[in-house]
Amino acid sequence: MSPTAADRAATLHLTGERTVPDVPEENYWFRRHEAAYEALVPYCRDAVVLEAGCGEGYGAALIAGHAHRVLALDYDGVTTEHAAHRYPDVDVALADLSTLPVATGGVDVVATLQVLEHLRDQEGFLAECRRVLRPGGRLLVTTPNRLTFTPDSPTPLNPFHTRELAPSELDALLHDTGFVVESPRGLYHGAGAAELDRRYGGSVIDAQLDVVLGALPGQAVWPEPLLSDIAALTAADFDLHDGDPREGELDACLDLVAVAARP
């Protein structure tokens, strides 16, 4: 019998470390992440893809519909067991991302979405990504924009984040670790999510945080109109736009989305 959404939420612990599909309270974050995956999957067509930090596995499964093969890695055993069971088209393995268990030049694409901010040695991880990519291979990376995600403090609000990056910082980090940034973009609220911003006093994100901050895990009481509005969002309610991170053109985005090549 397939696990229910509630079972998955309980098993994977909705602590803020990862998001999962099919849970109404998580749908804003899930759709926001899904929008980035959908924008990046064309780079995975017919490719051998490594997803470093797969979480629940929904992104690796989406990539698998386009790729030749997907190997998905995560550091947490419960998470990898769940992903392997739920997404049989994906090869899932338990691994420490500081040393990727892949041969040098062994993959065409490395996808790492909403992972970089969790890592203490971001430079070392990106060097590993470069090592396992074939020449000309691509790195697909997304991470929250520090300027909008935690704008008032150098310390991340999310306790699972170690270092968040501004657009110019991600650009510099990728260049410094030997990548050529081909497509720097930012993810923003599209028309649907922007309408919820207007409906909830300027920020649907703040409206959600007001519900969950201070509540014990799993015990937040959601107003029915807000929960219904959140549950109705889709990936189409978010937009991606190009911009030059060195000129400040992505400073107002929510998430940074970059495609970088190994020379």
Characterize the largest beta sheet: strand count, sense, and whether it forms a barrel.
8 strands, mixed
The tally of helices reads 10
Q: Based on the structure given, which CATH architecture is correct?
A: 3-Layer(aba) Sandwich
Rg is 18 Å
What share of the residues lie within helices? 25-40%
Distance between the termini: 47 Å
How many discrete structural domains? 1
The SSE order reads HHEHEHEEHEHHEHHHEE
User: Structural class, please?
Assistant: alpha/beta
In percent, how much strand structure appears in the residues? Answer: 15-25%
The beta-strand count equals 8
Mean pLDDT: 92
Descriptive key words:
alpha/beta; 10 helices; 8 strands; 263 residues; disordered N terminus
Please provide a written account of the structure.
This protein is an alpha/beta fold and 263 residues long. It has ten helices and eight strands. The protein has one domain (5-261): Vaccinia Virus protein VP39 (Rossmann fold). Strands 3-2-1-4-5-8-6-7 form an eight-stranded mixed beta sheet. The longest helix has 14 residues, at 27-40. Mean pLDDT is 92; it is low at 1-14.
Task: Give a short overview.
The chain has 263 residues and is α/β, with parallel strands linked by helices.
Topology overview:
Elements: H1 5-12, H2 27-40, E1 48-52, H3 58-64, E2 69-74, H4 77-86, E3 91-94, E4 107-113, H5 122-132, E5 133-144, H6 146-149, H7 167-176, E6 180-189, H8 191-199, H9 204-212, H10 224-231, E7 238-242, E8 255-261
Parallel strand pairs: 1-2, 1-4, 2-3, 4-5
Antiparallel strand pairs: 5-8, 6-7, 6-8
